[in-house]
Amino acid sequence: MLQATFKLCAGSSYRHVRNMKGLRHQAVLAIGQELNRRALGGPTPSAWINQVRRRSSLLGSRLEDTLYSDRELAYIHQGEEAMQKALGILSSQEGWKKENQQANGDKVLSKVVPDVGKVFRLEVVVDQPMERLYEELVERMEAMGEWNPNVKEIKVLQKIGKDTVITHELAAESAGNLVGPRDFVSVRCAKRRGSTCVLAGMATQFGQMPEQKGVIRAEHGPTCMVLHPLAGSPSKTKLTWLLSIDLKGWLPKTIINQVLSQTQVDFANHLRKHLESSPAPEARC
């Protein structure tokens, strides 16, 4: 389908395509939909991400150039790169050590990854369907500060296409003021296909959001959340969260490890409490 779609587009002259904005837009959407179909259907996370990246040469054609600026394309590619790296880390089952184990089965694992540093992996089961989690974590991202006390504010600075956003996140100070105020500017990418959803991100530069006085600009490394229905219980969701953060400043590693692993445990608890106490958003037409 992808090859046929592209040949159809190429069959018209460039001048003709430029003058037919509706046709051009439909063609790019068709290509994008085919890439998404293939992306989440591959045998391994790294395989389908690599497939998407190989097909990016098509989206870098003159057709896409009319839709996105060079800077926007750079953000899109950076988001895809973050997803590829994060899924690559998660796909490796070796070297993980237990950091935290809760009575309800929630657990935090960690390991040191070359060129990345120490990363943390939260694995939980949430008694809610995946669509509900997607609504809260992606479509209502800016409301996270209302239910997660570890987050003061998340603001979407720019939306690029349907999958990529640039965000500014202001984190709350940790208990006991062990870690002072931090903020993050990140590019985030969301991909979903069927019953699987992947949310990924990493630190980026955004000229309209310079560093704030009195706040340390920390950085997310490659990070992601993977959501899919629990096998045998489709009304429940398995959530895996890979967390990689450079908090900057002068902080002992023991403090950093304690804060980050506890942040993940707290997130799961706050998310459950929020979902249980608030009604699901009405289905959209």
UniProtKB/TrEMBL annotation:
Keywords: Lipid transport, Lipid-binding, Mitochondrion, Steroidogenesis, Transit peptide, Transport. Pfam families: START. It is found in: Mitochondrion. Residues 67-280 form the START domain. Pathway: Steroid metabolism; cholesterol metabolism. It comes from the Eukaryota. InterPro entries: StAR, StAR-like, START-like_dom_sf, START_lipid-bd_dom. Plays a key role in steroid hormone synthesis by enhancing the metabolism of cholesterol into pregnenolone. Mediates the transfer of cholesterol from the outer mitochondrial membrane to the inner mitochondrial membrane where it is cleaved to pregnenolone. May interact with TSPO. This is Steroidogenic acute regulatory protein, mitochondrial. It comes from Pipistrellus nathusii (Nathusius' pipistrelle). The lineage of its organism: Eukaryota, Metazoa, Chordata, Craniata, Vertebrata.
